[in-house]
Design a protein that fits this description.
The structure holds two protein chains of two kinds.
Chain A lengths: L13 E5 L3 H12 L3 E6 L21 H7 L3 E4 L5 H12 L3 E4 L3 H7 L3 H7 L4 E6 L14 H7 L10 H5 L12 H19 L13 E6 H8 L1 H8 L15 E5 L2 E5 L4 H10 L14 H6 L1 H12 L4 H11 L3 E3 L3 H5 L2 H5 L3 E6 L3 E6 L3 E3 L26 H9 L1
Parallel strand pairs in A: 1-2, 1-4, 2-3, 4-5, 5-6
Antiparallel strand pairs in A: 7-8, 8-9, 10-11
Helix pairs in contact in A: 1-8, 3-17, 8-9, 11-14
Chain B lengths: L7 E4 L5 H11 L3 E6 L30 E4 L5 H12 L3 E4 L5 H5 L3 H7 L4 E6 L14 H7 L2 H4 L12 H25 L3 E6 H7 L2 H8 L17 E5 L6 E5 L3 H10 L3 H5 L6 H6 L1 H12 L4 H10 L3 E4 L3 H5 L2 H5 L3 E5 L5 E5 L4 E2 L17 H8 L4 H9 L5
Parallel strand pairs in B: 1-2, 1-4, 2-3, 4-5, 5-6
Antiparallel strand pairs in B: 7-8, 8-9, 10-11
Helix pairs in contact in B: 1-7, 5-7, 5-8
Classes of the chains: A alpha/beta, B alpha/beta.
């Protein structure tokens, strides 16, 4: 059942999303979860994201990615190849506060959806462009998928480090799972949309906001979160995946899985020595010096790894927590879904997924107010909000669209 | 004018994730007042031997553009001054371990009593509530708790640790959620507490895998593979440690790709006709692509593939990024002067507006650089009063 959004931070905000990729879709998802009425505009066959694998077990066409990204949104079908569909779409835009769009620039031009056209027809609209390399610059027309973008932003070249880099030194660099870069684009697009709405004191009751265009590049967004590598470059160090590995600690294999260990401070190192039950090698007084430990990192790592393999993850992380040693189990997605902490915080919510049934879905990585945010629904059926196109479409408007 | 001009933030954040949040908001125009103390200098004000920096940073990517004041929060009078600052701020941000702000008398209950319509953002490892709320952590631990580390890795290898991008993605989420709360404030006059959990950010970045697992599926490490596309991967070019990324996303792109690599026979080969066929035989295709890529200059090959409609890009080093013409045209990479007067590359905020301005106006502040403005003009402290507080190590 659809939930009320009254009281949510973005209640009353109308968002229209014309998306094919993860970046714009994630921006819409974040705004929807924060309370905005978010309407996904799809072509007659549905957005290509609906057809992205992996598919949920027992189904041939219910995608996990779409189900996650579209939860809480409405769906209308507008065939932008035909005049009636474009008129319907214009009617939707005229009621929107924010328009999210990731169509390539040349296609936007053909549809009259470039920033200048939108300014003329919808002066109050905040129109957010999400493109692989942004809407301005010499690569604005370049295409980019996740694997291209995480490398275009510099982070791809820097992965993996630590144990994986040691085990497979000759393999190609490795992307982060899933859609990390594209999602950074989505988070930044939501940030940009909200900043534009707040510009000039906007957002206050009764205050009219002048709209503007917001240009988000997934490459920029991913580079922004990789800022330290640029800072290090300015300090005179060019980072590389092999040399940026921690000298010791990192990924440790245990009897039943993996843990992460990272001791940056002296008390944490001393805690680790206690955690290992004070083995003779670790009591070498020279190892009290952090620089000496750094020099003998490989030797220390051999000892720590041999020790970790004889313990279970649960045993280690419980004791490490007591001793103030930063350590975490490498949790699988199933572990996280079943996690007590996550349950206590309401991280997941069971929603109905059309074609599959009820399923726990991650809501949001933050709370706003006293309680967890709640999704208003699962992902929409194609065209399930078609009644949102209720405003009578006048002939003048239709003609205006056809005349383009 | 910048979009957030007029918004004032009392910034109690430390380390990476929290300061990155306020760094973004500062570049969008918020007046961000960083509260520091010589008693406990922030990470960029002291040596950071783990990363090979043996002195303080001359430029800090997450502190630049902020105003700096000193306040000793271990002294009751320092806490009182912090409260006076919050009383004239719209937003307060902090990133201590949950409970620390409460113990200082600066928790949400205290601060919202002083300023009922305050927006307060707390960034922490596991959130303000729940059985693990007291856990401290760093980026690799957030990634481990949130399954992003478990899912990242070669198909036959171990999990991979997440680095700074993890911290900063937490900060970016926090900046976005803070603005949602500010939007609510402008509309209703009500403030609110924003509680950002770093491990939940890691989990949110693989929400589709969580959903698959919840549905009974078995997500696993995919390396550089894609569940649908092939060819898809990172290929070695003719030059040492120089890599080319390629993602063939459609039948049309496949035809174009085969043409560019001079292998029309592959495009005509019935074994590779459909996307599903190509995916099933991706190992065979990869051998062909590796052979081609090994003879090519990666940058030229990427440009040629893009011109033909194939998504491709070189695996950029930070040197490439800093000198990239496109990123400089966009104003994403800029040059700044650091505290020692040296010119260096820095990053701007990753949003461009058609009307509003953004970006850095100044570099890293010196400790306490903006006390005349903040203590004098905003809080109305006289010179004698300030001098006494300096002597008493309250302003310290």
């Amino acid at each position: 059942m659809a939930r009320s959004t009254v009281g949510l931070p973005l209640a009353g905000l109308n968002v229209v999303e014309l998306s094919r990729g993860v970046g714009a879709a994630y921006a819409g998802r974040l705004l929807a979860t924060l309370g905005a009425e978010t309407l996904l505009v799809e072509p007659p066959g549905g957005t290509p994201l609906r057809r992205e694998p992996p598919f949920l077990p027992g189904t041939a066409e219910v995608g996990a990615l779409f189900s996650y990204l579209a939860a809480g949104k409405g769906s209308v079908v507008c065939d932008l190849a035909d005049a009636e569909g474009r008129a319907d779409f214009e009617a939707l835009l005229s009621t929107a506060d924010v328009f999210l769009c990731d169509l390539p620039l040349d296609e936007r031009g053909r549809l009259g959806l470039d920033d200048h056209d939108l300014r003329v027809r919808h002066p109050r609209l905040v129109s957010v462009s999400v493109l692989p390399f942004g809407a301005v610059g010499s690569k604005a027309h370049w295409d980019g998928e996740e694997i291209n973008l995480i490398h275009a932003a510099g982070e791809g070249y820097l992965l993996p480090n630590g144990l994986s880099a040691e085990l497979f030194p000759d393999r190609p660099p490795l992307k982060i799972h899933g859609h990390f870069a594209e999602m950074q684009g989505g988070i930044v697009a939501a940030l940009g949309a909200l900043a534009a709405l707040l510009a000039d004191g906007g957002g206050a009751a009764g205050r009219r906001v002048e709209g503007q265009g917001v240009d988000v590049s997934i490459q920029d967004a991913t580079l922004a979160v990789g800022a330290f590598a640029v800072q290090r470059y300015g300090d005179g160090s060019l980072e590389h995946r092999v040399t940026r590995s921690f000298k010791y600690g990192g990924v440790l294999e245990c009897a039943d899985g993996y843990v992460e260990l990272l001791t940056l401070e002296e008390r944490q190192w001393r805690g680790l020595v206690d955690l290992m039950e004070r083995p003779t090698w670790a009591l070498d007084p020279r190892l009290a010096d952090p620089l000496e430990r750094s020099r003998r990192g490989a030797e220390i790592n051999a000892e720590i790894r041999a020790w970790a393999r004889t313990h279970t993850t649960a045993d280690l992380v419980t004791r490490a927590q007591r001793l103030g040693v930063p350590m975490a189990k490498y949790a699988s997605p199933a572990d996280v879904v079943a996690g007590e902490h996550e349950r206590a915080r309401g991280l997941f919510q069971t929603v109905e997924i059309p074609g599959f049934g009820p399923c726990q879905t991650l809501v949001a990585p933050f709370h706003v107010g006293d309680a967890p945010l709640r999704l208003r629904a699962g992902p929409p059926r194609l065209g399930e909000s078609q009644d949102r196109i209720t405003a009578p479409i006048g002939t003048t408007q239709k003609q205006a669209v056809e005349a383009r | 004018m910048k979009p957030l001009a007029g918004l004032r933030i009392a910034d109690f954040t430390v380390h990476a994730a929290g300061p990155f949040c306020t760094h973004m908001l500062s570049q969008l125009g918020a007046e961000c007042i960083k509260i520091e103390s010589a008693l406990r200098p922030d990470i960029f004000r002291k040596p950071h031997a783990v990363y090979g920096r043996m002195g303080p940073a001359s430029f800090d990517q997450v502190a630049s553009n902020k105003l700096s004041i000193r306040l000793n929060l271990k002294d009751r009078r320092g806490v009182e001054l912090a409260k006076r600052l919050v009383a004239v701020s719209d937003v307060a941000c902090e990133s201590f371990r949950p409970g620390v702000m409460d113990r200082l008398g600066l928790g949400w209950k205290d601060l919202s009593a002083i300023r009922p319509n305050l927006v307060m953002t707390s960034v922490s490892s596991s959130g303000q509530t729940g059985p693990d709320a007291h856990f401290a952590g760093y980026a690799p631990l957030f990634g481990a708790w949130g399954a992003l580390g478990w899912l990242t890795g070669y198909v036959d290898g171990p999990p991979v640790e997440m680095r700074h991008v993890m911290d900063h993605s937490v900060g970016m989420n926090a900046a976005m959620a803070t603005l949602a709360a500010v939007q609510h404030l402008r509309r209703t006059g009500e403030g609110g507490h924003v509680d950002v959990s770093a491990r939940e950010v890691a989990a949110s970045l693989n929400g589709e895998a969580m959903l698959l697992a919840a549905a009974g599926g078995e997500p696993h490490r995919l390396g550089n593979e894609h569940p649908r596309m092939a060819p898809h991967g990172v290929y070695h070019s003719r030059d040492r440690d120089r890599w080319l990324t390629i993602a063939v996303h459609s039948d049309a792109a496949w035809q174009a790709f085969a043409r560019v690599i001079g292998r029309p026979d592959l495009a005509a080969d019935p074994r590779f006709r459909s996307e599903a066929d190509r995916h099933a035989r991706r190992d065979v295709l990869d051998v062909e692509i590796e052979r081609w890529a090994a003879t090519r200059d990666a940058d030229a090959a990427a440009a040629e593939l893009q011109a033909a409609g194939v998504a491709a890009h070189v695996s950029a080093t930070i040197h490439d990024v800093v000198h990239d013409g496109h990123l400089r045209e966009r104003g994403m990479v800029i040059d700044v002067d650091d505290l020692e007067g040296n010119r260096r590359a820095a990053l701007s905020v990753p949003v461009r507006f058609s009307r509003s301005q953004t970006g850095l106006d100044r570099g890293t502040p010196r400790l306490g650089e903006d006390e005349d403005h903040v203590f004098g003009e905003l809080l109305g402290l006289g010179k004698a009063e300030r001098d006494a507080l300096v002597d008493a190590q309250v302003i310290y």
